[in-house]
Amino acid sequence: MNSTPSVALSDVHLTLTAGSGPVNILNGVSLTVEQGETLAVVGPSGSGKTTMLMLMAGLEKPSSGTVRMAGADLTAMGEDELARFRRENLGIVFQAFHLIPTMTALENAALPLEFAHHPEARSLALEALEQVGLGRRAGHYPSQLSGGEQQRVALARAFAPRPRIILADEPTGNLDEDTGARVMELLFKMQAEETATLVMVTHDRNLAKRCGRTAVMHSGRMEER
Amino acid sequence: MSGRDWVVALTLCRRELRGGLRGFGVFLGCLFLGVLAISAVGSLGRALEAGLGADAKAILGGDVSVSLTSRDLSPDEADYLRGFGDLARTLSTRTMARANGASVLVELKGVDALYPLYGTMELEGDGDVQRLLAERDGLFGAVVDRDLLTRLGVRVGDEIDAGEARFQVRGVIVREPDRVMEFFSLGPRLMVGAEGFLATGLSQAGSLFRVEYLLRLTGRDVSRTVESIRSAYPDSGWRVRDFNRAAPRISTILDRLRTDLTLVGLGALLVGGLGIAGGVRGYLGGRLAHMAAMKCMGGPSRVLFASYLMQVLFLGGVGALAGMAGGSLVPWLAGRFFADILPIQAQGGLYPAPLIQAALFGLITTLAFSMPPLFRAVMVSPSGIFRGYIAADTGRMPRAAILPTAAAFAVLAAMVFQFAGDTKLAGWFVGGTVGAWLLFKGLARAIRWLAGKAPRLPWASWRIGVANIHRPGSPGVSLVFALGFGLTALVAVVMVNVSLTRALTAELAQEAPAFFFMDIRPDQVGDFRALVAGEPGVNRLDLRPMIRGRIVRIAGVPVENAAVSEEVSWAVRGDRGLSYSRDFPSGSTLLRGQWWNGDYDGPPLISLTSDLAEGFGVDLGDTLTVNVLGRNITGTISSIREVDWRTLAMQFAVIFSPGTLDRAPQTWLGAAYGQGGEDGLFARVTAAYPEVAVITIREVLDSAAMLMQRTARIFQVMAGVALLVGFLVLAGAFSADQHRRIYDSVIYKVCGATRRDILSILVAEFSLAGLFTGLGSLILGTLTAWGVVQGLLKMRFAPDLSTGLLTVLAGVGISLVMGLLGTWRVLGKKASPFLRNE
Questions:
Q1: Pairing between strand B209-217 and B64-69?
Q2: Cα-only R_g, chain A
Q3: How far apart are CA B644 and CA B830, in angstroms?
Q4: Mean of the pLDDT values across residues B583-609?
Q5: Nearest alpha carbon to residue B446 among B768, B734, B729, B732
Q6: What is the mean pLDDT of chain A?
Q7: What does the H/E/C string look like for B335-397?
Q8: Does the pLDDT of residue B382 top 70, yes or no?
Q9: All residues at 6 or more sequence positions from B308 whose CB lies less than 8 Å from its CB, including other chains
Q10: Among B760, B752, B747, which Cα is nearest to A121's?
Q11: How far is A2 from chain B (nearest CA, A)?
Q12: pLDDT class of B388 with cuts at 50, 70, 90
């Protein structure tokens, strides 16, 4: 096992200022996830799950504490360094897919590779689409795909650059049970093949059970089961 | 649709409008500017026309004017005219005014004791013109333009010479009631009394002077008086006009200017149509879910269509009303703030006709451009809306929208034809608009196609930027339309202006004579030739006799009844210069017939220029009758010459064979060519021949170029309005696209794009689109300018490379600035709020 943890959050606080005064979103979250591990984060709405995921993605900055991902301290990085870090290390899957509607499935899947100036961006993206069973739909726009297909394109986009860490925010939240199950099969299969670290926010207890560890968030604090 | 459906539609319309006009900024802005431009031009035109009408008697100088050249009326003729009412007389010519060793070409005018019959003469310090012009202590008085004082270095009270007379400057002119429009003037005014004018010796028979008799009728009908005068002296060679045609040339110019400017304004409105369509699309886009819900609840598409059409028309009415209100203020503002630069006093007031016309243009444009998005919106399937992604607007027109949209545009085209009055011009405008639309549409398609086919660029950001251009709904493509028209109009105006200015100041100056000399007496010709030809720098001197005469019959038909084309109507409008010659004139080419022998002594023959022959519809063997000092002379056309008038060489349209006009009172005209020594030549000629008027061609050309630039500026303002509307349309397109670009940028960031990457994508997308727009505008604008200069003005077209380069740079620059301005904020936006689940 690699000695550097894949995810290492240490006493992370996040306070946002709202109209009625400061609101503590995260209250001293500490967490370590090793390379290749799978972690489910569960908890009620508003408990800070998605915020924690955003911190791990470098899309939010903590008020205090450190966020180290793949050995790199995200809190010390500027915006462009974070962008470069993401394209080299992270794959992100959202509940609402977040594809670019004016780009085809292939173009969407190739985006992170394009930004990383990968010479084989399109062929790797096509490979990833074939992996998720959408090789023949590569030229379709998101509006021409079903919800499950759109999420599979999002999976292809997340896995195409072969990232070390996958962050997934309610990846089945917008899908029906069967489609959701098929997408999750794919997610876990790809994660296993790449031995990537997976941190997944979910409300689905069965899904959580499939992960190696489960952490529970409550009012900005974390407990591990 | 039943009556109840209409009620439902109206109710829905009212409810939707409760939200106010938010989100309609661009829609209203485009409509306002377009309608404002058209109504402002129309209102100002009407106000000037009204001013012209109100001051017509002052502008003409009387109820009826009888003018003649190079001779005065006989006492009998004058008595005849005096029988109709008060009769005033003015005399005018061009000559040199001299003082302190300097000479300046002036427009000399002599007025009698009744001047002015109508209107008032405004002088600095409110002096009385008659008192100032009167002879005092043997010295005549004069009032002058301030410019003359500066150029001669004299002040009020000093003395100046003109011809053989000396005058004391006693006042400075502010405004002459009968001097309406200084479109083109060869020199400042020197006004003296009639006696003073006669004392100059410049009104001898044959000299180039003009006499105008002005009548203030006492209870007589104007038209009947004109008829009586014409029939009493049918062969007099007089030009008789009444005040209704006080300034026909100015009326024509104003009318033409109004039409042309309105068409540019209409072009701006049509560009604004894109903003209108964008506004409607954006507004309806935000209401697709409402429509879908209403459809689910059983709302029929036609009711929804009617309801939203009413909203669009209501908003169109608001925009058009605002434009009308702005336009209606223009006559008042022009009269108050721009009275000095306007040719005629604009008559303040409300002119409903042009305002209503502009509003109608606005409303029909709104209707034409709103149809496609309206149809598209009501035809969207409710199920599509609930899928999460609404299919990007492909811009394809629904089949049902084709007919109503075409009908609205047809009405617009019909209105253009009706408004312009000139079928050819309207045809050019409509054809040009359709052509421009096709060109820009083709260009937009070409850009998309090229972007789709572009080879894979090695830089990811540029690759994505180029790919963005060919994506559905790309704002880069709307750039082509929005900026294209305005830039095209600007290129055309600037190129026409540059071509004309260059032709006038550079090219013509090379070919044209350096000086023209007027009013050389026949007995001075020999000495004059010796003096000028001996001057250093002069390499050619043309001297020709000129006799003033008026064409009265063409092929035996009185000129009033002859079919004379508009292009050469100037030749029969009044007196023209005629000449006679033994030798074939240099600078012309013999097209048909034969030039007479040097010793020809037979019946009068005429050599006519080809443009007049064509315009009069005559050829070899036909006759022309001219009236010279009251005597009709008929000659047979024996040759047709071609003359290039553009060289400004001294040329005569009608040249008689020798023996016919030789003994008629005449003066000679001269043209000296050459370079260097101009100042010396000017000084020596003006000193030796004080009564000879010397026209410096450089000054004439400069004055013409200045006039051209002034006119061009008006058109530039209108083209600027079109460009401003283009900006608005662009701003609308970008603002409608803002949400999408923020979203795209967030996803780019998630996928690892740095801010530089995102900026590069935008730079690639907009600079390429801007480059193509600039190039398209350059091509179309240059073609338009070429058509105007070469086809309409018959001058040499000189494309201007720097303008071309500037246009392309402007296209790229503007689109980049617009694109980046709208996106700069996006770069700093936090990504997380956009990524959270709702």
A1: antiparallel
A2: 17
A3: 71
A4: 90
A5: B768
A6: 88
A7: HHHCCCCCCCCCCCCCCHHHHHHHHHHHHHHHHHHHHHHHHHHHHCCHHHHCCCCCCCCCCCC
A8: no
A9: B13, B16, B284, B287, B374, B377, B378
A10: B752
A11: 25
A12: very low
Q: For residues B451 and B465, give the distance between their C-alpha atoms in angstroms, rounded to a whole number.
A: 9
Residues in chain B: 838
Kindly report the number of other CB atoms within 10 A of residue A148's CB atom. 16
**Given the structure tokens 């004080």, which residue do they identify?**
B690
Taking each helix axis from N to C terminus, what angle separates B697-750 and B755-786, rounded to the nearest 10 degrees?
150
pLDDT above 80: residue B761: yes
Q: Which two tokens stand for residue B825?
A: 């904020």
- Secondary structure in 3-state letters for chain A: CCCCCCEEEEEEEEEEEECCEEEEEEEEEEEEECCCCEEEEECCCCCCHHHHHHHHHCCCCCCEEEEEECCEEHHHCCHHHHHHHHHHHEEEECCCCCCCCCCCHHHHHHHHHHHCCCCCHHHHHHHHHHHCCCHHHCCCCHHHCCHHHHHHHHHHHHHCCCCCEEEEECCCCCCCHHHHHHHHHHHHHHHHHHCCEEEEECCCHHHHHCCCEEEEEECCEEEEC
Position B386 scores a pLDDT of: 45
Q: Among partner residues B459, B751, B837, which is closest to A112 by beta-carbon distance? A: B751
Count of CB pairs separated by less than 8 Å, A with B: 106
Task: Read off the pLDDT of residues B338-366 as tens digits, 9 standing for 90 and up.
Answer: 666 666 777 778 889 889 988 998 999 88
* B504 or B747, greater pLDDT: B747
Identify the CA nearest to B118 among candidates B67, B69, B54, B174. B54
Nearest to A11 by CA among A58, A75, A72: A75
**Residue B505, phi-psi category: left (phi > 0), alpha (psi -120 to 50), beta (remainder):** alpha
Q: Residue B323 has what pLDDT?
A: 92
Token pair for B452: 């789709």
The overall average pLDDT reported for chain B is 82
Phi-psi region of A36 (alpha: psi -120 to 50; beta: other; left: phi over 0): left
The Cα–Cα gap between B251 and B180 comes to 11
Query: Which chain B residues are Cβ-neighbours of A142 within 8 angstroms?
Result: 389
What class does CATH assign to A36-59+77-224?
alpha beta
Contact B747 A111 (CB under 8 A): yes
What pLDDT is attached to residue B387? 44
> Chain B residue with minimal CA distance to A52?
B832
- In the prediction, which pLDDT does B295 show? 66
Domain spans of chain A?
36-59+77-224
ipTM for this prediction = 0.76
Across the range B35-64, mean pLDDT stands at 84
Secondary structure (DSSP) of B539-564: EEEEEEEEEEEEEEEETTEETTTS--
The residue among B473 and B39 whose pLDDT is bigger is B39
pLDDT winner (highest mean) among A39-43, B57-61, B664-668: A39-43
Beta carbons within 8 Å of B806's beta carbon, 6+ residues apart: none
Instruction: Please give the C-alpha separations between residue B146 and each of B92, B95, B102, B151, B174, in angstroms, as whole numbers.
Output: 19, 17, 16, 9, 9
Model pLDDT, residue B249? 66
Instruction: For residue B77, give the amino acid letter.
Output: E
Q: Under an 8 Å CB criterion, which residues of B touch A?
A: 384, 387-392, 459-460, 463-464, 467-468, 471-474, 740, 743-744, 746-757, 830-832, 835-838
Which helix (H) or strand (E) segment holds residue B287: the answer is none
Residues of chain B with C-beta less than 8 angstroms from the C-beta of A97? 388
Averaged pLDDT for residues B508-512: 68
Give the pLDDT band of residue B182 (cuts 50, 70, 90).
very low
Tens of pLDDT, residue by residue over B80-121, are: 999 999 999 999 988 889 998 888 889 999 999 999 998 888
**Contact assignment for B752 to A112 by CB distance below 8 Å:** yes
